[in-house]
């Protein structure tokens, strides 16, 4: 007889739970791949001999690829379904990660980062469309928990990166191990994700103008993603050059940020249900700003770690809540609505990391972090304009 995992587990575990676990696995794999790259940025910067300003320019390649794929990702997900797009894109994402480890010149690194951003966003739109579908099965907010798995993977990736650095493992060997794990897990999980998307209209245009509600959500995502991108790309460098942390503690800030980002996402659905979307976003913005300003005002190991803890809590709920609201749009199908909001939001990734590099080159990393703190305040202010039903 032909038994499957769902046949064996269905007497005890519902179909929607199996779908939730499979989609959650895709979030984890994408987060692990990205965190693996982020954890080795200082190593790759040193290997290629890049200054902070040069690194800022190189990092433009990733969001450039990401932005190019945004309208295509939404349209493609709507046309052929998120299941096919997610499976292919998550696999290519892990494969492109390995190419980053083999880059020997600045141009090679930029080319690989461009592709990394392109396929990464294809995966992002597709797996979030899957999450919207699973959330519809539960009839209650669960989006943040999916993003929590992404962040948990980021925490695991940061810890793995620290171990690899400590053991003297070079980036391409590190990334090869991640690729092997990702492909093995994907082969299993892809069989149990949703076969069809919720509320999908295959006639949606490739480019879509967001309505006012989606525009507000996009602006909030934009501000939050500037802060998030800063933590991903510059936390290790901040601890190395400003905090003057020992080699073993260079990743402490990133680890602190990712740990509270993961924890916050596992409680964000409950918190938003109890206190409302608007209040949750307002509190998030305040936490982001206060955390960054703490790390700037008190540039010491302990206080900087506390500050990064606060930033992680603040960032944790913003993107998943915005995506959940966008996925419920009655104007656009989930894939296209998510792409429309992401087009605005991911401009933060386009602007944030290189902005820090350019400002740091002209002034200092501390001043650039103050500017990023202002984006946290913008999240709090714009949250007041959010409608309870987006």
Q: Residue ranges: pLDDT <50 for 5 or more in a row?
A: 1-11
Main sheet: strands, sense, barrel: none
Average of the residue pLDDT scores: 86
Rough outline: globular
Class by alpha and beta content? mainly alpha
Q: Which architecture of the largest domain would the CATH scheme give at its second level?
A: Up-down Bundle
Number of domains in the coordinates?
2
The share of residues in extended strands comes to under 5%
Going by CATH, what is the homologous superfamily of the largest domain?
A: MFS general substrate transporter like domains
Q: Given the structure, what is the number of helices?
A: 17
The CATH topology of the largest domain is Growth Hormone, Chain: A
Pattern of helices and strands: HHHHHHHHHHHHHHHHH
Rounded radius of gyration (Å)? 20 Å
- Residue share in helix: over 70%
Report, as a whole number of angstroms, the end-to-end distance: 47 Å
């Amino acid at each position: 007889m032909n038994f499957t995992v769902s046949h064996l587990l269905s007497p005890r575990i519902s179909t929607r739970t199996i779908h939730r676990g499979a989609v959650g696995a895709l979030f984890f794999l994408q987060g692990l791949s990205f965190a693996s790259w982020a954890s080795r940025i200082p190593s790759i910067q040193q290997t290629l001999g890049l200054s902070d300003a040069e690194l800022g320019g190189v990092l433009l390649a990733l969001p450039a690829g990401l932005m190019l794929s945004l309208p295509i990702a939404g349209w493609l997900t709507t046309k052929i379904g998120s299941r096919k797009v997610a499976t292919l894109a998550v696999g290519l994402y892990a494969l492109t990660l390995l190419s980053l480890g083999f880059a020997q010149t600045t141009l090679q690194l930029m080319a690989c980062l461009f592709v990394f951003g392109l396929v990464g966003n294809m995966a992002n739109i597709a797996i979030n469309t899957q999450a919207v579908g699973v959330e519809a099965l539960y009839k209650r907010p669960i989006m943040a928990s999916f993003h929590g798995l992404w962040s948990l993977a980021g925490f695991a990736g940061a810890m793995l990166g620290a171990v690899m650095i400590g053991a003297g493992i070079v980036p391409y060997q590190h990334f090869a191990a991640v690729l092997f794990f990702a492909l093995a897990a994907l082969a299993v999980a892809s069989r149990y994700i949703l076969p069809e998307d919720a509320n999908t209209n295959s006639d949606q245009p490739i480019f879509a103008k967001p309505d006012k509600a989606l525009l507000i959500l996009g602006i909030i995502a934009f501000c939050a993603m500037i802060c998030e991108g800063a933590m991903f790309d510059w936390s290790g460098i901040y601890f190395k050059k400003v905090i003057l942390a020992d080699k073993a503690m260079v990743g402490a800030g990133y680890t602190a940020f990712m740990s509270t980002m993961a924890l916050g996402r596992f409680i964000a659905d409950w918190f938003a249900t109890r206190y409302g979307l608007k209040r949750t976003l307002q509190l998030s913005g305040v936490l982001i700003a206060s955390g960054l300003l703490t790390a700037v005002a008190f540039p010491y190991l302990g206080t900087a770690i506390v500050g990064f803890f606060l930033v992680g809590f603040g960032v944790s709920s913003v993107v998943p809540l915005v995506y959940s609201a966008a996925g419920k749009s009655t104007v656009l199908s989930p894939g296209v609505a998510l792409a429309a909001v992401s087009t605005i939001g991911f401009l933060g990734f386009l602007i944030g990391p290189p902005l820090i590099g350019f400002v740091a080159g002209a002034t200092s990393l501390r001043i650039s972090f103050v500017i990023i703190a202002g984006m946290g305040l913008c999240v709090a202010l714009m949250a007041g304009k959010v409608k309870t039903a987006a």
